[in-house]
Structure of Quercetin dioxygenase-like cupin family protein:
Amino acid sequence: MVAEEFPVVAAGAGVARQVLADSTALMVVSFRFAAGAQGALHNHPHVQSTYVESGRFRFHLGETSFEVGPGDSFVIPSGVTHGCDCLEAGRLIDCFTPRRDDFL
C-alpha cells in the first residue's frame, strides 16, 4: 500500500497520525503536531525509532527529557514510558517493530 491509501486519523488534540507503510515486522508512521500539542506519556512493547522531519519537540523518555529538532533521531526501547511536547509545529516519522496493529 502507498501512504495515500492509509487514512489520516486524530491522535490527540493538535496531533494527526498516518501510517505510511507496514508489514508484520515493521511499520512507518507520520505524526503531525501543532505547536503546543502533546504526545501523552505512554509505553508499548514495540521498539520505536523517531526521526524529526520538522519542528521542535521536548521528549520525555523514562526519567530524562531532551529537546530535538530537524534531522535528529533516537530509539525508544520496548516498554519505556515516553511522550513529547511540541514546541514548534512539525512532523515526526516513527518506525515500530513489530508493527502497531492498533494503528490499523
